[in-house]
Amino acid sequence: MNIVNQFATGNFAIRYEKNSQVRGDFEKFKNALDNSGICVSDAINGIKVEVETVQAVMEETNASSMEVSRTTSMLAQNSSSVSRLAERSSNSITQVLSAMDDLSKTVGAVATNAEEASAKAMKTVELTEKGLKLAGQAENGMNGIMVSFEDTGNNIIDINNQMEEIGKIVGIITGISEQTGLLALNAAIEAARAGEAGMGFAVVADEVKSLALESQKSAENIATIIGNLQKKSQVVSDSMTESFKEVKTGNEAVGETLRVFNDIVTAINVIYEHLAEGASASEEQAASVEEITASVNEIENLVQQTAKEAVDSAAATEELTASIDQISQAISEATSAVQRITSEMEHFTVT
Questions:
Q1: Is 324 within 8 Å of 75 (Cβ atoms)?
Q2: Overall domain count for the chain
Q3: Is 7 a member of any domain?
Q4: What is this structure's pTM?
Q5: Residue 287 to residue 293: CA distance in whole angstroms
Q6: Continuous segment of H or E residues that includes residue 81
Q7: In this structure, is the dihedral angle defined by the CA atoms of residues 271, 274, 280 and 285, taken in order, positive or negative?
Q8: pLDDT category, 59, cuts 50, 70, 90?
Q9: What three-state secondary structure class fits 40?
Q10: Helices vs strands, H then E, count in the chain
């Protein structure tokens, strides 16, 4: 009776004393109780190991998510820097166009204006090269984000595999509970046959049956929790897939930005060469001014396109940040569920 009461409180480490003198059906019942305690202890120990593994994976996943969040923040800053540099480049190009207009009106000041425009063009080259460097950093950041997303996706797959293993163990516990219930039913039948002499044994059998039902109910609760965790993991996995698509799109946009910046540098270098030639040969100023003006207009269009792409990249980064926040929340909820399972397992005493 004491062993049954201990089982009911979650203590499955208790056993009958080896020198206990019982015979017949009582000996079978004693062995059945001892075996039940051993089986349940083994199952609970297995669950504890799997839960600890799941918790470790969740912590690693959470760390990866935080790293992704930090990288995304850096990417947003880089996108803003690219936008500001594109705006500054546009202003500089506007000044160059104004200088070209003055140059066409005043042939006598061709050399002076050409030198001024040349200096401004050189400054624009420096600014554009700086923007090119920042865009390269943004591309590296995007690549890092994609790698982190892949790692996080692999961790989620590991979590789902661990949950499946826990589900198998829960099935074992359910089977043990059902077997214990059958043993209790058989014991009750034998007690009924014994009449008044088996009354006490019938009470014990009833307690064992109740314990089996409680164990089965606990196993069902654990299965429900695992099911909820699997659903949340699926939500996280879906969010990761969508976020990965957004990151890939942003990475392509950054790559396009790099190509545009290279075009800008090339075009501005062409302008600089034309301005230098204009400063040394005033007779060729008129033709040179027209050619330079056309090139600057083309550059201005490229700069405006670069600014637009930088804004689009910033918007994509904001969406990515929102997706990462959802992922972090889902991971936090899954971690809380694992902690609740761990807390429930602490109520059991096993061998």
A1: no
A2: 1
A3: no
A4: 0.33
A5: 10
A6: helix 24-105
A7: negative
A8: confident
A9: helix
A10: 5, 0
C-beta separation of 324 from 68 below 8 A: yes
In CATH, what number is assigned to the domain containing residue 204? 1.10.287.950
Residues 91-143 have pLDDT tens digits of 766 776 676 676 666 655 555 666 676 677 677 667 767 766 776 676 676 67
Report the distance separating Cα 74 and Cα 79, nearest Å.
Answer: 9
Report which secondary-structure segment, H or E, holds 45. helix 24-105
Element (H, E) at 321: helix 285-345
Paired residues of 349 in beta bridges: 11
Question: Is residue 4 situated within a structural domain?
Answer: no
Residue 16's pLDDT is what? 66
Domain range enclosing 232:
22-341
Q: Which amino acid type is present at position 308?
A: K
Instruction: Please report whether residue 347 resides in a domain.
Output: no
Contacts of 308 (CB under 8 A, 6+ apart): none
- Beta partners for 11? 349
- The answer to whether residue 349 sits within a structural domain is no
Encode pLDDT of 223-242 as tens digits: 787 777 767 767 766 766 77
